[in-house]
Write a structure and sequence with these properties.
- By secondary structure, the chain is α+β, with helices and mostly antiparallel strands.
- The protein has four domains: about 90 residues, conserved putative lor/sdh protein from methanococcus maripaludis s2 fold (Beta Barrel); about 110 residues, Beta Barrel (Elongation Factor Tu (Ef-tu), domain 3); about 60 residues, RNA polymerase II/Efflux pump adaptor protein, barrel-sandwich hybrid domain (OB fold (Dihydrolipoamide Acetyltransferase, E2P)), CATH 2.40.50.100; about 120 residues, Helix Hairpins (Orthogonal Bundle), CATH 1.10.287.
- It is built from seven helices and 23 strands.
- The chain has a six-stranded antiparallel barrel with strand order 3-12-15-14-13-16. The chain has a four-stranded antiparallel beta sheet with strand order 2-17-21-20.
- α2 runs antiparallel to α3.
- The protein starts with 7 loop residues before the first helix and ends with a helix.
């Protein structure tokens, strides 16, 4: 009997499908018995932001600039006469502080003293001639009176002899001789008158000569005084260009000194910040010809600070004037402030003097503007601000800016005091989006201090 064996390939195929069929059966059983998937409803997203309540402050416009200290007065001693330096004050050295009236140097005065003596001698001679002329005029007048009396006698004698000639008791020759005597006497009177008439012209000549000599005397005295050079004010010596026994010529620069009673700083202030200080000022105040009057009318306060190498030193200053130059590259204008007594209250290592060339910070402050609404500068987005409105939703407001400063902006319209202004970045910013706000008290404090110009 013939036996039949199974096909090995068919057996392996069924072995593959059996596990697959079992897996499908288990999956169907789990799906049938399992609960349906939980349905989750979609929720609105909330954005976390920081905010401040917009404050009302007494706004003090402020502008900072930087410049170098320079003396308000610089004095240069220039030789006004020629001569040899016979005395040079040993204290006259670069950097020395000297009081007003201190002798700087003396030029040999001998030549100028001799010139003064010569002019004085010439004046004495002219004055003697004037005195002599006064005596001469008196003598001429006395002589004139005598000659006029003699003339009267001659005229009377001539008349007498004229009568005698007619009677025949006097010869004609005697009468003619008397006529000649009368003419001679008249000539004497005329000579005296001529001498007297010449005296005023001679006196004027001598007086003019005396006036010229008096001018020469003043010039000689001035030249003599110029041989001594004194400091016109309390100063610090900046430069010495002469030595004792050196011969100096007229026009030579000898010594330079800087006044220490007052110093000034020309600081470069950005035009935009300067505009904030001058906002609301009258044109007549800005264009006042008197700098002191302009400064008082504008009401701008000033201070100077030295912040360097751990130092933080302050000097009170006052706004003096606006410079005549404008820098178009940096868009800044020069503002000049003055500091009184820059060398006062010096403490070595703590408070240095405000010396020439020191690079300092100038702080300008305008008159206060009461109850201004301010926000941080970075909270302004192209003329708009982000406000947390009702239901904690974003409102985008158009605002009018009155004053724009690097730290803050003063808002004139479009925002109310106390409204919550977003101060953190919000990208994208979509009106109506839900916000979760958190107050930022530190930023609010910094804003109030900056707007109120408090250190």
């Amino acid at each position: 009997m013939r036996s039949h064996s199974s096909n090995p390939a068919v057996s392996r195929k069924w072995l593959f499908f059996v596990p697959l069929l079992i897996g499908i059966g288990i999956l169907l059983l789990l799906v049938k018995r399992g609960a349906p998937p939980e349905q989750v409803e979609a929720s609105e997203s909330v954005h976390s932001v920081r905010y401040i309540a917009a404050p009302l402050v007494d706004l003090v416009p402020r502008a900072l600039g930087y410049g170098r200290v320079r003396p308000i007065r610089v004095w240069e001693a220039v030789a006004e006469v020629n001569g040899r330096v016979v005395e040079l004050n040993p204290r006259v050295r670069k950097g020395a502080l000297l009081p007003e009236g201190e002798l700087v140097l003396r030029i040999d005065p001998t030549e100028y003293q001799l010139a003064l003596n010569r002019v004085q001698a010439d004046m004495l001679s002219t004055q003697a001639q004037l005195a002599e002329m006064a005596i001469k005029e008196s003598n001429y007048k006395s002589s004139l009176e005598i000659e006029e009396e003699a003339l009267g006698l001659r005229e009377a004698e001539l008349q007498r002899k004229e009568r005698l000639v007619k009677k025949g008791t006097v010869s004609a020759s005697e009468f003619e001789q008397e006529q000649r005597n009368l003419l001679a006497q008249r000539q004497q009177v005329q000579a005296q008158n001529n001498a007297i008439n010449l005296l005023p012209a001679e006196r004027k000549l001598l007086e003019a000569q005396l006036a010229r000599q008096e001018a020469q005397l003043e010039s000689a005295r001035l030249d003599l005084s110029r041989t001594e050079i004194h400091l016109p004010f309390q100063a610090r010596i900046a430069e010495v260009n002469v030595e004792q026994t050196q011969y100096v010529r007229q026009g030579s620069s000898l010594v330079k000194a800087d006044a220490i009673a007052k110093a000034e700083v020309e600081a470069q202030i950005p035009i935009a910040r300067m505009r904030g200080l001058l906002h609301g000022s009258d044109e007549r105040e800005i264009n006042a010809t008197d700098p002191d009057l302009m400064a008082s009318r504008l009401g701008i306060g000033a201070g100077v600070w030295l912040r360097d190498s751990g130092l933080d030193v302050h000097w009170d200053a006052h706004f003096a004037r606006i410079s005549d130059t404008l820098d178009p590259d940096t868009r800044t204008v020069g503002v000049i402030v003055e500091v009184d007594r820059p060398y006062a209250n010096v403490r070595p290592g703590v408070r240095p003097p405000l010396v020439k060339g020191l690079f300092v910070e100038v702080d300008l402050r305008g008159p206060p503007r009461p109850e201004r609404l301010v926000i941080p500068r970075h909270a302004l987005h192209g003329g708009r601000v982000y406000v947390i409105g009702e239901d904690e939703r974003l409102e985008i407001r158009e605002v009018t800016v009155e004053t724009l400063q690097p730290e803050y902006a003063a808002v004139a319209d479009g925002l109310a005091a106390g409204e919550h202004v977003v101060v953190s970045d919000l990208v994208p910013a979509i009106a109506g989006m839900r916000l979760a706000g958190q107050a930022d008290p530190e930023l609010l404090e910094r804003l109030i201090r900056a707007a109120g110009a408090k250190e």
